[in-house]
């Protein structure tokens, strides 16, 4: 029988439309403006009585509170009005002081039953939703110092292997100086080192009875180290941003030593800054023996007990750069730990060091580069200077029971939050040089609320014009097309929400274009039905022929457009990708609604029934 679908096709269409409705629903629940309270390290929260006083002060200030949620390491205060965010943050920050960090946030308001189905609203881009903007500066001097430290450690190991005795090692700016007891040892060492380290200019000097070998990095080597520091930091920051789950972030170089990071939709500057700006790294060192010369040892405090310290060897076994995978877990006593897997080189070095030192203690040294600001007077004006400093602390000192390989664990961490962040930093890689925050701010929609409203209005106007045209031109069949158009928009929103695609203003343009193109298929089909009716076919035959003969033309036209959208996505960046995503998804959803949904409605209305006149 003509124009009848089998039951399974109707059920398939119904299931797809139902899923589309469910996964588009979260977009009807906008996020709540909120203020988040946490500590800098995220390991404690606000007390009950203190929180009650804060709530009362907010109400006294005329700030309406929607809800207060207490979680493991933070308090989230949902507000009724966006304009209350900044006053609420300032009031809470003044009340709590420097012990807590108060940040703006946007709290998801999707009902729990939708969240249980993994349904969430679309992610909005920086131009529609705002986000966090960081301007970071790479410490080039520290990059050179770190490279010199690595070279010094390698040279010391080489000298010990060759049994060449030295007294001391000094690092200053871009130079590395070794002190030897006599000229003979120095000259032998120079011949050995110069072959392995060609990036230095060498000079022999005398200092009383001691013989000095001064190694200065060449200008070319300095440039290469600085470029490597920038590129490596860019890669590491991109990995960290990906771990944060931010959609379409911007991480790019600005000038010779600065990096711009923009995170759309993120207003929790605390967590973002803690992860993006963290310069933490690990070093694995052996504990010094009592008879080890002072020149080969360094003393460090324990991170969770500054009154306790240990003497470690200056030579590093491996650093966090050798970590290939890291995950947080808990030990048999419920304490947080980080499980670590090393790459091939790191595993070999760890095995070599531990195999010959069973029974000796090995320390995990946590290194973090920070800055503090101080105000100084210059020419009668107060100027804020940034002073970098480095904190080093032992988080674990354990006895080597057996030779270690590629996998082991780190214990001695203060909280699960610290363990999770350390694992994240190790997974994403360490920074090649410390970075400092030059500028940080939470920014609003760059195009403003007025332009956002115009973008939404363009969708509405486009939809109304298409609806009016289809009704006037095709009457009852126009109703079918308009229903399919509304369902197409619903499916498009659901697909973008499911895939986590980011909606930008160019993306809205892609939706408007999709709405205009969505009825093209129906126009081809309906005009073909009219033509078949004029050729003398019966109504049922004309409907059947209209859908079948227009099919190939519809597919050809949409595939060519889809190919263009794929090319735009592959070679474009930022806004161009946003446009390509909405256009591609819109083509797929419009094909489904035009070819299957409208056909199902036509079949249910006319299929298998005697029809005297077709309103088309």
Automatic annotation (TrEMBL):
Membrane topology: Multi-pass membrane protein
Listed GO CC annotations: plasma membrane
Compartments reported by the entry: Cell membrane
InterPro entries from the UniProt entry: SecD, SecD-TM, SecD/SecF_arch_bac, SecD/SecF_CS, SecD_1st, SecD_SecF_C, SecD_SecF_C_bact, SecDF_P1_head
Residue span(s) of domain Protein translocase subunit SecDF P1: 230-287
Domain SecDF P1 head subdomain intervals: 300-433
Gene Ontology biological process: intracellular protein transmembrane transport; protein targeting; protein transport by the Sec complex
Quaternary structure annotation from Swiss-Prot or TrEMBL: Forms a complex with SecF. Part of the essential Sec protein translocation apparatus which comprises SecA, SecYEG and auxiliary proteins SecDF-YajC and YidC.
Protein task: Part of the Sec protein translocase complex. Interacts with the SecYEG preprotein conducting channel. SecDF uses the proton motive force (PMF) to complete protein translocation after the ATP-dependent function of SecA.
UniProt protein name: Protein translocase subunit SecD
Organism of provenance: Billgrantia gudaonensis
């Amino acid at each position: 029988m003509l124009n009848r679908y089998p039951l399974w096709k109707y059920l398939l269409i119904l299931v797809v439309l139902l899923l589309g409705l469910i996964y588009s629903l979260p977009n009807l629940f906008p996020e709540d403006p909120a203020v988040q309270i946490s500590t800098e390290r995220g390991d404690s929260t606000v007390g009950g009585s203190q929180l009650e006083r804060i709530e009362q002060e907010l109400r006294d200030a005329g700030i309406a509170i929607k809800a207060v949620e207490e979680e493991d390491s933070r308090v989230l205060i949902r507000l009724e009005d966006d304009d209350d965010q900044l006053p609420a943050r300032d009031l809470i920050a003044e009340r709590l002081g420097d012990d807590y960090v108060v940040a703006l946030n946007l709290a998801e308001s999707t009902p729990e039953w939708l969240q249980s189905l993994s349904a969430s609203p679309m992610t909005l881009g920086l131009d529609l939703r705002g986000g966090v903007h960081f301007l970071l500066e790479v410490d080039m001097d520290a990059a050179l110092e770190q490279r010199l430290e690595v070279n010094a450690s390698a040279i010391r190991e080489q000298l010990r292997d060759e049994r060449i005795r030295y007294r001391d090692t000094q690092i200053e700016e871009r130079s590395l100086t070794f002190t030897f007891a006599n000229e003979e040892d120095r000259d032998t060492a120079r011949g050995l080192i110069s072959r392995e380290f060609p990036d230095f200019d060498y000079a022999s000097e005398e200092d009383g009875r001691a013989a000095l070998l001064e190694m200065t990095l060449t200008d070319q080597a300095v440039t290469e180290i600085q470029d490597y520091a920038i590129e490596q930091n860019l890669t590491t920051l991109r990995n960290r941003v990906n771990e944060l789950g931010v959609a379409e972030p911007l991480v790019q170089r600005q000038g010779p030593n600065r990096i711009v990071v923009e995170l759309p939709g993120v207003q929790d500057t605390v967590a973002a800054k803690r992860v993006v700006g963290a310069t933490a790294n690990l070093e694995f060192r052996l504990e010094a023996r009592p008879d080890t010369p002072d020149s080969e040892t360094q003393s460090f405090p324990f991170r969770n007990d500054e009154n306790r310290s240990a003497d470690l060897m200056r030579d590093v076994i491996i650093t966090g750069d050798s970590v290939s995978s890291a995950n947080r877990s808990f030990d048999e006593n419920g304490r947080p730990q980080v499980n670590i897997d090393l790459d091939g080189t790191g595993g070999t070095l760890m095995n070599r060091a531990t195999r010959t030192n069973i029974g000796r203690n090995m320390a995990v040294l946590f290194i973090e580069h920070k800055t503090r600001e101080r105000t100084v007077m210059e020419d009668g004006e107060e100027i804020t200077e940034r002073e970098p400093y480095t904190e080093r602390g032992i988080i674990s000192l354990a006895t080597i029971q057996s030779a270690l390989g590629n996998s082991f664990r780190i214990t001695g961490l203060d909280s699960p939050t610290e363990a999770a962040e350390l694992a994240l930093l190790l997974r994403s890689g360490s920074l090649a040089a410390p970075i400092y925050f030059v500028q940080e701010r939470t920014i609003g929609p760059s195009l403003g609320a007025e332009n956002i409203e115009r973008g939404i209005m363009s969708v509405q106007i486009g939809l109304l014009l298409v609806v009016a045209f289809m009704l006037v031109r095709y009457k009852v069949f126009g109703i079918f097309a308009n229903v399919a158009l509304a369902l197409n928009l619903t499916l498009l929103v659901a697909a973008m929400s499911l895939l986590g695609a980011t909606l930008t203003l160019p993306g809205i343009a892609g939706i408007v274009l999709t709405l205009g193109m969505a009825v093209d298929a129906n126009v081809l089909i309906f005009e073909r039905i009219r033509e078949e009716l004029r050729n003398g076919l019966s109504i049922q035959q004309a409907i059947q022929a209209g859908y079948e003969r227009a099919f190939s033309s519809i597919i050809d036209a949409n595939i060519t457009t889809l190919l263009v959208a794929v090319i735009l996505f592959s070679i474009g960046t930022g806004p161009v990708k946003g446009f390509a995503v909405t256009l591609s998804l819109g083509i797929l959803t419009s094909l489904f609604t035009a070819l299957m949904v409208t056909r199902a409605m036509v079949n249910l209305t006319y299929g298998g029934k005697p029809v005297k006149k077709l309103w088309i």
